């Protein structure tokens, strides 16, 4: 049972947001992209007789906080382009189209979840169109995991295997479910779970933005003050286990220190892939 | 409000939500030919979601259109009452308070036109009463306790709904493509006397109480009145201070709306007309419409 303090909506400055991306120690380029942004209402003055509107605070209250990770797949520039295009498209869609923030948690939340799916599918179309338009017929694809916090809920939409975790102050929950062939084989009982990480299909995507098939999965979880959301590309999780992530979250003093601690761990262990980590903590309400 | 004789095709076009660029809005204020200062203020603004990037790896986020689709359009006129600067300060404070309220507090746009739309009407009333409190507090804080008051008429459009909240005698008109409707009702002592049968309508304009406010922001009493109409693509909204309507009749306003070519043209034409006829008071005119783009000749 949550106390009132645990559910009170955090002010903008009670959020601790950080993100970083690193090329790793093996790859020649970084094909990951990430974005953290805030959606708020805004009043724009079209015409007025008022002498000075600069001193009016016309930035309105926050509607949502968004974090996204896209991990590009494919040789040369095409993977990095796919992840950049996907991130840009989905954020443009959110800015221009999403109007249903007020429906979060209500009977009409289907509209919000549908919008997130639409945004991701639009990214899929844009990446496919770009790949088709290119001279070389290289495959161009990316994962895309987007988290949208509309207090006290977080909506997560996922295509591919970039993960979202939520630590509620006690326990770590993996919100996403890797859309890889190996995970599918485990789910179907064809592959024992303990052999997952050594399977050649471990990193082969079943669903990808720009790929043959994109099957967005949307979920919703409850947020709590003192909780931590973590988004990452598989460059982190191929080297760092869930229990290590939990330990680092428990020990973290800031989102920035958490991201750097996890990055260092992945690099120490070889940094085989690009590593992207986003952390969003809501601080516990302090004494007034 | 319905427009008769419309076929189904036109009806659909008539209610189609206009894009930001399809809106034609303009505002103009003039001191007139008698008053030394202009105590009127007006404001036209747009409320929309905005994406602010906190941190990213993307190279060029500045190129992305991060302005979201419009939630509402707001237009207001405030006509300050009182000597020296206090009238204009009252009008400015009232306008600023409403702008601040709209940006920080107003959130129930999705309830517009629904069963819970009382939320919207209540919020508009609250915005205006907050302006009342701010102006009164400012008046009380000043060394010389001069009366400090203003009219305040605010129109908020959450397509296709047009909400109007009014205190005082700055008018809002809606022209539905055929007929001009006066949405507001002057909150003056003169109008009150007419309404109660104590003064014949035809003697209203000559009455000494004609322009004495029965309700004002910052005054002894502010009695906001909220109404709601449906906006149409063929419709035109006009807001004005009484500096216009003391010189220009409703029939003349209707005639000029019928022949208007743009919001800017209509504002200038009406202000010029009031000036020609003496310009006894400050004149403010705000016009907003969202006509369908036609391929026919203009």
Q: Can you describe this structure?
A:
- The complex is a heterodimer of chains A (288) and B (298).
- By secondary structure, chain A is α+β, with helices and mostly antiparallel strands.
- Chain A has one domain: PPM-type phosphatase domain (Phosphatase 2c, domain 1, 4-Layer Sandwich).
- Helix content of chain A is 29%, strand content 29%.
- Chain A is built from 7 helices and 11 strands.
- Chain A has helices at 4-7, 78-97, 109-133, 181-187, 234-237, 242-251, 255-268; strands at 15-22, 32-48, 59-73, 141-142, 144-150, 153-159, 163-167, 172-174, 217-222, 228-232, 275-282.
- In chain A, the strands form 2 sheets. In chain A, strands 2, 3, 4, 5, 6 and 9 form a 6-stranded antiparallel β-sheet that branches.
- In chain A, a hairpin with a 2-residue loop joins strand 5 and strand 6.
- The mean pLDDT of chain A is 90.
- With 298 residues, chain B is an alpha+beta fold.
- Helices cover 29% and strands 26% of the residues of chain B.
- Chain B is built from 7 helices and 11 strands.
- Chain B has helices at 8-15, 86-104, 118-141, 189-195, 242-245, 250-258, 263-276; strands at residues 24-30, 40-56, 72-81, 149-150, 152-158, 161-167, 171-175, 180-182, 225-230, 236-240, 283-289.
- In chain B, strands 2, 3, 4, 5, 6 and 9 form a 6-stranded antiparallel β-sheet that branches.
- In chain B, helix 2 (86-104) packs antiparallel against helix 3 (118-141).
- Chain B is globular.
- The two termini of chain B are 27 Å apart.
- The model of chain B has no long low-confidence stretch (mean pLDDT 90).
